[in-house]
Amino acid sequence: MNENIQRTRPEWCDPTEWEARVQLAAVYRVFHLMGWTELIFNHITLRVPGPHKHFLINPFGLTYDEIKASNLVKIDLHGNILSPSEYPINPAGFVIHSAIHANVENAHCVMHTHTTAGLAVACMEGGLAYTNFYSAQLHDMVAYHDFEGITVHAEEKSRILKSMGDKRLLILRNHGLLSHGVTLAHAFALLWTLNRACEVQVVTDSMRGQTLPIAPAITERSTRDALQFSPAHGAGQNVLDALVRRVTRIDPSYQE
């Protein structure tokens, strides 16, 4: 860990957790840079290394560009706050994220967004269309969950998990996009590709003429060739590292 970052670590936080906090805070700043924000809402959560299924979540009330390593909130699977915090957590974020962290062993990071393009596609009956370069890389990787209202009811957890199955990407109908990964970078690479596919689809659907469908055999091969999703090939780490370097140049205060 960088020596300067280590010096900012508060006494109540061990070095392993602090490193996870710095990494997660950096990704919140990346989301802010990319415009993947929704006022003080939406969440990126990250498992804290160790035997317990504790995870870090953003404090409810702060915008993404205010997130720092020290103000992230550590909670358990019951929503109990386990770290010093002046802020509560958002119940809607807790329900979705805790369901996945509790039941999917390798879901170390969960990301959920309400981007305009993602939400627009989530509102369409047909969902994601396999008609562009990015959606072609997501063959058989996307699940759907029907809208049940604001996700603050614990009984929806089991239905979310059933809808998601073994997929790492979930389109929440009428709601938004979700990804989970073995690392922050893995979840980010998946979500970026899905969101980009939605952006292109929204523009394509606004044009005259017919879209060109891509044959399933081609999308299957494209997905197999898209190595950025594979942990064995870095799972997007080089992309995320480049974006973190950019936010660090702009404002390194996330490290505090």
Explain the layout of strands and helices:
Blueprint: H1 3-7, H2 15-34, E1 43-47, E2 55-57, E3 73-75, H3 91-103, E4 109-113, H4 116-122, E5 142-145, H5 156-164, E6 169-172, E7 176-181, H6 184-205, H7 216-225, H8 237-250
Parallel strand pairs: 5-6
Antiparallel strand pairs: 1-2, 1-4, 2-3, 4-7, 6-7
Supply database-style keywords.
seven-stranded mixed sheet, alpha+beta, L-fuculose-1-phosphate Aldolase, 256 residues, 39% helix
Describe this structure in words.
The two termini are 14 Å apart. This protein is α+β, with helices and mostly antiparallel strands and 256 residues long. Helix 3 (91-103) packs across helix 5 (156-164) and helix 6 (184-205) packs across helix 8. The longest helix is centred in the last third of the chain and has 22 residues, at 184-205. Strands 3-2-1-4-7-6-5 form a 7-stranded mixed β-sheet, sandwiched between helices. The chain is built from 8 helices and 7 strands. It has helices spanning 3-7, 15-34, 91-103, 116-122, 156-164, 184-205, 216-225, 237-250, and strands at 43-47, 55-57, 73-75, 109-113, 142-145, 169-172, 176-181. It has one domain: L-fuculose-1-phosphate Aldolase, CATH 3.40.225.10.
Give a concise summary.
This protein has helices at 3-7, 15-34, 91-103, 116-122, 156-164, 184-205, 216-225, 237-250, and strands at 43-47, 55-57, 73-75, 109-113, 142-145, 169-172, 176-181. The protein is of the alpha+beta class.
Overall spatial form: globular
Radius of gyration: 18 Å
Going across the major beta sheet, what is the strand order? Answer: 3-2-1-4-7-6-5
Q: Please identify the top-level CATH class.
A: Alpha Beta
Number of domains: 1
- For CATH, the homologous superfamily is named as Class II aldolase/adducin N-terminal domain
The CATH architecture category equals 3-Layer(aba) Sandwich
* Alpha-beta content class: alpha+beta
Number of strands: 7
- List the uncertain runs: none
Task: Characterize the biggest β-sheet.
Answer: 7 strands, mixed
Please estimate the helix content: 25-40%
User: Distance between termini?
Assistant: 14 Å
**Chain-averaged pLDDT:** 94
- What name does CATH use for the topology? L-fuculose-1-phosphate Aldolase
Proportion of beta-strand residues = 5-15%
Number of helical segments with 4 or more residues: 8
